[in-house]
Amino acid sequence: MLIKIHYKEGMLMKVNVAICDDNEIFCNQIKEFIERFNKENNTNCEVSTFNSGFDLLGQYTAEYKIIILDIEMKGMNGIETALEIRKKNQKVIIWFLTVSKDYMLEGYKAEAFRYLIKPLSYDDFAKEFDESIRWVDEKYVRPIIVEYKNETYHLETNDILFIEVFGHKLIYHLLNEKITTIDTLKNIEIELCKLNFVRIHRSYLINLKKVKTFNRNEVVMKNNERIPISKYKEKDFKEAYTHLWGKILG
Length: 250
Prior knowledge:
By secondary structure, the protein is of the alpha/beta class. It has two domains: 7-139, Rossmann fold (3-Layer(aba) Sandwich), CATH 3.40.50; 152-245, CATH 2.40.50.1020. The chain contains seven helices and 16 strands. The strands form four sheets. A five-stranded parallel beta sheet has the order 3-2-4-5-6, with helices on both faces. A five-stranded antiparallel beta sheet has the order 11-10-9-13-12. Strands 1-7-8 form a three-stranded antiparallel beta sheet, with no helix packed on it. Residues 144-243 form the HTH LytTR-type domain.
C-alpha cells in the first residue's frame, strides 16, 4: 500500500459549520459572513444550513466543529437542540444567537462558547468567529490526508499509536490494525513532532498520548506493545513528555 502524506503550511484543516435558524434570511446572512471570512483569512469552512432543531439533529454528524443556533425557534428551540447535541459531542463549539438576553443562563447549561445578540455586524461576527476557528485548530486532531489507488482518505493522528521503520517501509500501528506504506520517517517526522509525536529510536516514532507506561529502557503503548528507547533518544523523550504532561522526569 503506497500512501502519500500532504501537509499545507498556513492552511487550517477543513471546518464544518452548521447554522440552524428558522429565519432563512438570517441563515443566509451568516453563511455569507463565513464565506467572506474564508476569503479574507484563507480558512476552509464548509457551511450547512438547517431550518429547525429537528432537521439538524436528524442530519447531525460529528464532522461539525462549530454549530450556530438561534434560540427562539418553533418546535425544538436552540437550547433543547444544543442539550441533545451535547449528549453526543462534548467538544463541538456551540454559539447561541438571539434578540434577547433572557435565555443566557439556560444557554450556559449547554456550555455555549459564545452568546451573541442579533442583529450582528460582520466585524463583530468575524472577531468572534476567528477565536472559534483558532480554538478548533488547537483542540481538534488534525487529519493526515492520504492517497491510495486514486482514493483519498483521512488518517486521524489520534488513531496512530506509533510508526515503525521496516526496511524501506513504514508501518503505522493503529489500535486494531496496521498500515504498511512506502516512505521514510524523515518525510513525516517534522510535522508529526508538532502533534505530540517523538522519535525514541531510529526505528520508532511514538504518539505520546498513547503511552501506557515506561521506564528508562522501553515504552509500553496502550495496545501493550513494547518499544525500546535508544540511549541517544532518552533525553528527547523526557523533554517531549514533560512538555506535553507537565511532569518533570528525572
